[in-house]
Specification:
By secondary structure, the protein is an alpha+beta fold. The chain contains 2 helices and 4 strands, in the order ββαββα. Helices cover 41% and strands 25% of the residues. A 4-stranded antiparallel beta sheet has the order 2-1-3-4. Helix 1 crosses helix 2. It is globular and about 40 Å long.
Length: 92
């Protein structure tokens, strides 16, 4: 697992994850779905393995930008999948 630094709006989060996308989902669940902190969410999740600062001037630009809308949709789909799976297990 890699260590990722994620920034979205006023929030910063560091975690270990398999991918940048998984790290964004961890942050989304931690800050935005639990606290209902929608006012402070930014439009973009910026993910880096090098720290919270932007790295757009470096030779090896490793920052990944992911749309907040896309992350929110994936989180919703993931929750729906888990609910469907739990329902199927109860029926067996």
């Amino acid at each position: 697992m890699n260590k990722f630094y994620i920034t979205c709006g006023d929030h910063q989060y560091m975690c270990s994850a398999s991918t940048q996308l998984q790290a964004c989902l961890f942050m989304f669940y931690r800050y935005f779905s639990l606290d209902n902190n929608a006012e402070s969410i930014g439009g973009v999740f910026r993910v880096s393995e090098r720290g919270y600062d932007e790295h757009d001037d470096d030779e090896h630009d490793d920052d990944v930008l992911l749309s907040t809308g896309e992350i929110a949709q994936l989180a919703l789909l993931n929750n729906e999948y888990k609910a469907d799976k739990e329902e199927q297990e109860c029926e067996e």
